[in-house]
Amino acid sequence: MKGIKPLVFAGVSVLAVVFLFPLYVALLMALKSAKETFDSFYSLPARLDFSNFSYAWETSNYLSAFVNSVIVTGLSTALILVVSALSGYAIARGNKPFYHFIFLLFLSGMMVPFQVTMLPLYQLGKSFDLLNSYWGIMIIYGGFGVQTGVLLFTGFVRGISREIEEAARIDGCSTPGIFVRIIMPLLKPVTATVLVLNALYIWNDFLLPLLYLQQDEYRTIPLQQYFFFGQYSSDLNLAFAYAVMGLIPIIAFFLFMQRYIIKGIAAGAVKG
Which residues contact 149 (CB under 8 A, 6 or more apart)? Predict the structure, then answer.
């Protein structure tokens, strides 16, 4: 066992370097001048230059893009959580074949890649006048996010004893009351997991906003960053500075939510 620990530590260290290397490159490029980048891509800068951040803020309308990203991510994750929790509870507690069919229907959506439905979704959004609106992109994110959400919520609810609900029902509590007062507090671990997974994906997604949010006032952070790359020239330093500014909020959100996930997992282990 003593010989295994150094190997595990070495393996974890290698993985940490691999995953942190892109962040290192982003910070490096954001703090270098264009001339230093041209001379040597991976070399350290002679001095820390924060002018890229201020210039990227001024030229890219970062505040508007940040608000758009917050609105799109917040509305989409809220829709995913509500639909997934309600559907997962109904499927887990329903014994009829209908609920099993609905569960398989949700899972079947996970097998269809987004690229296959990309053009039909665009045509559908154009027909219903959902392009360049928060609601159009929110519905699509919700449709793709509830698939995994239903799977996780259903599995978690099935692990909750029915005796708790039966006791509450005897005391006169209705089904909605049982769900809100008893089930939802127990769903904190899986709720945090679904929230973090979908928030990270939606915040960093580029393809769907490129299709649905084509007007300037609706652009999210990843989409706004794209316009630093022109047809004949690209400003890598400003693009990376903008990317770092976009990463800071979602990393802070992940670090804040991480403790809730760990606490939830620990509570679930004790409960089991």
Answer: 80, 81, 83, 84, 85, 88, 194, 198
Nearest to 194 by CA among 90, 91, 94, 76: 76
pLDDT digits (tens, 9 = 90+) for 106-159: 888 888 888 888 888 888 888 888 888 898 999 999 989 999 899 999 988 888
pTM for this one? 0.84
- The string of DSSP codes covering 31-93 is TS-HHHHHH-SSSPPSS---HHHHHHHHHHTHHHHHHHHHHHHHHHHHHHHHHHHHHHHHHHH
Contacts of 146 (CB under 8 A, 6+ apart): 79, 80, 83, 84, 87, 106
Q: Tens digit of pLDDT for each residue in 72-97?
A: 999 999 999 999 999 999 999 887 88
CATH superfamily, domain 60-271, is MetI-like (1.10.3720.10)
Q: How many CB atoms lie within 10 A of CB 203?
A: 22
Structural contact between residues 118 and 206, judged by C-beta atoms closer than 8 angstroms: no
What are the sequence ranges of the domains in the chain? 1-49, 60-271
CB atoms within 10 A of CB 254: 14
Decide: 193 and 152 in contact? Cβ < 8 Å.
yes
Burial class from Cβ neighbours inside 10 Å (0-12, 13-18, 19+) for residue 50 reads exposed
Of 16, 53, 56, 24, nearest to 41 by C-alpha is 24
Extended strands (E) in the chain: none
